[in-house]
Amino acid sequence: MTSRRPPHSPSQPFATLDWTGRHVRLLDQTLLPRKVKYLSIRDEKTMWEAIRSLRVRGAPAIGAAAAWGLYIGTARRRNRTLREVRRNVKTVADYLAGARPTAVNLFWALDRCRAAVEALPDGAAADEALATLLAEAQAIQREDEESCARIGEHGAPLLHGIKGVVTHCNAGALATAGMGTALALFYTAAAEGQRFTVYVDETRPLLQGARLTAWELQQAGIDVRLITDGTAGTVFQRGMAQAVVVGSDRIAANGDVANKIGTMPLAIAAKYYKVPFYVAAPLSTIDPAARSGADIPIEERGAGEVTSFGGTPVAPRGTKVFSPAFDVTPARLVAGIVTEAGVLRPPYRRSIARALAGQ
Amino acid sequence: MTSRRPPHSPSQPFATLDWTGRHVRLLDQTLLPRKVKYLSIRDEKTMWEAIRSLRVRGAPAIGAAAAWGLYIGTARRRNRTLREVRRNVKTVADYLAGARPTAVNLFWALDRCRAAVEALPDGAAADEALATLLAEAQAIQREDEESCARIGEHGAPLLHGIKGVVTHCNAGALATAGMGTALALFYTAAAEGQRFTVYVDETRPLLQGARLTAWELQQAGIDVRLITDGTAGTVFQRGMAQAVVVGSDRIAANGDVANKIGTMPLAIAAKYYKVPFYVAAPLSTIDPAARSGADIPIEERGAGEVTSFGGTPVAPRGTKVFSPAFDVTPARLVAGIVTEAGVLRPPYRRSIARALAGQ
């Protein structure tokens, strides 16, 4: 059994993750751009490690990876009855939920798969429950592909007539099961014949911009200029970019946006130079339980990511760091949130509630 | 002949550059923090290369290095007459002026040394001219040591009662002939018994913050947290820092500040979170000929500094970059400019003119 795989974009020659019918095939993003290597994942521990170590990253891709991990982790256990399947689903889901604390899609995907199994009539067979779990993972992957395409369609008009645009981290095909969130706007606008330059923040400490976004945009033939995270201000000051588009790891009910560290100062600089700052994310990124950004837990990373690079120390031995993985951009800096349901505009508490109600 | 060397600070166990009586002894900052190695510089080409390759960096240190370079480059030529000395001074000064385009102290120091030789009566001997050139270089170095100490004294009161402060790049002892500019405030406040944490921007692409500032503050026993350049916004948002202090490579007559790339978005983020942003620099950093930041030439650096990290490639082969070495912080974001003559406050056109007139 293989999942239906529509082309993500005419120019995307890779799949971030996929189900082969026997295992999950997952592009190891920690090796990019040096090496294109796929992992074969057959159990939940390997998937947990892949999520934890950022071999797969990006909120929507993490959601799909978690759903697949839940399926393979459950299927390899003893599942003689529906009751056993449900118990195994709970065990594996609780385990996978600990892989990364900030990405709400992780919990969303696990909850959704678990709810599908819970919703079965109590007389259902164990096989039927496993098939449901598999179908739910496939649906999450397929829906993500489709929502990426919708995000691109809704967002591309925001880029009409621009000469340049800034993005941060990787909210691209590599971050989703589809053609990306923020980068879906670029792929769609480019496919419509627009020509523009994407200024890509390298995105310290893990350099997802340099390693992943520059790579995937170049593969698609889009003009890229890599910049350090401190350079975007000058890009705005000189009138080189007319928009910013980023992804998100979690959006609160009031429109506060958690995304990769460095996003918030980028939004502040954009505001200062009157450049609109857009967030592109599927509705699954919105956490209605988070009333504001203050309710979003922010993961802190270890010192080594900042004090050394590629094995080379760049700071004195023993240097202490402060390294939050994400920051929270206040909603008032966000010009629009591009979702598969359309572009949400301020005031976000209302537009978000309406969009979630309309799902 | 050796220069008088007052202690820069009780805790500073290194000299950035010095005159041994025969050659210039210069700490190769490209090897820090891995290795503490001194270069012996005996000709202007080696000095040009040291300035160009950032073995010595920081506007005031570049000024002193240029003055020493002008002396050693002139002294090794044929100097039978004052006329020959003056011709050699011109040749060497023109050559050294090309090492880096943004640091005004480079031109300032060369002009000052050259003017001292020009000011000699036409009957002066060649030896006297060379002695004048040497004395001028020594004066520049000594005055820088003193102005650093004054900057520390004037600025330390701005840090009273703070818990944390953010700095960018290296405006420390390593950037001057003395105890630094921005870091002079920290050394002085710490010597006065204040306790605070310095959040040090790593400062991509060349990591002066990680390599140099973290190193020299740690040597002085000051509490350091290294952060990526995108993290300062979160430091402000969480109330962890109550001030920012940075150095400058050139200040325009209206108070616009050219400094290491990444400074301007830091100033914008500080303003957004109502954290005062201070610049610490000797008056020699002010370029009255630059009416605003638009008149300051901004050097662009090569792609390799961004596309690789510590020698390891991090971006796909052939990635194009936009890599200005400096940015311009608009004067309205600057709460004060700490100089050896006191703290200048807005409106800067007036306070700067007054300070320069008072020299």
Fold and architecture overview:
2 copies of one chain form a homodimer. With about 350 residues, the first copy, chain A, is α/β, with parallel strands linked by helices. The first copy, chain A, folds into 2 domains: about 15-150, translation initiation factor eif-2b, domain 1 (Four Helix Bundle (Hemerythrin (Met), subunit A), Up-down Bundle), CATH 1.20.120.420; about 150-355, Rossmann fold, CATH 3.40.50.10470. In chain A, about 40% of the residues lie in helices and about 15% in strands. Chain A contains 11 helices and 16 strands. The first copy, chain A, has helices at about 45-50, 60-75, 80-95, 105-120, 125-155, 180-190, 210-220, 230-235, 265-270, 305, 350-355; strands at about 15-20, 25, 40, 165, 195-200, 225, 245, 250, 255-260, 275-280, 285, 310, 310-315, 325-330, 335-340, 340-345. In chain A, the strands form 4 sheets. Chain A has a 7-stranded mixed sheet, sandwiched between helices. A 4-stranded mixed sheet of chain A has the order 11-8-9-14, with helices on one face. In chain A, helix 2 (about 60-75) packs antiparallel against helix 5 and helix 3 runs antiparallel to helix 4. The longest helix of chain A has 30 residues, at about 125-155. Chain A is globular. Mean pLDDT of chain A is about 95; it is low at about 1-10. Chains A and B meet through helix 7, strand 6, helix 8, helix 9 and strand 12 of A and helix 7, strand 6, helix 8, helix 9 and strand 13 of B.
Question: Can you describe this structure in just a few lines?
Answer:
With 359 residues, chain A is α/β, with parallel strands linked by helices. Chain A has helices at 44-52, 59-75, 82-97, 104-118, 126-155, 182-191, 208-219, 232-237, 263-272, 304-307, 348-357, and strands spanning 17-19, 24-27, 38-41, 164-167, 197-201, 223-227, 243-246, 250-252, 257-260, 277-280, 286-287, 308-309, 312-313, 326-329, 336-339, 342-344. Chain A has a 7-stranded mixed sheet with strand order 6-5-4-7-10-15-16, with helices on both faces. Chain A has a 4-stranded mixed sheet with strand order 11-8-9-14, covered by helices on one side. A 3-stranded antiparallel sheet of chain A has the order 1-2-3, covered by helices on one side.
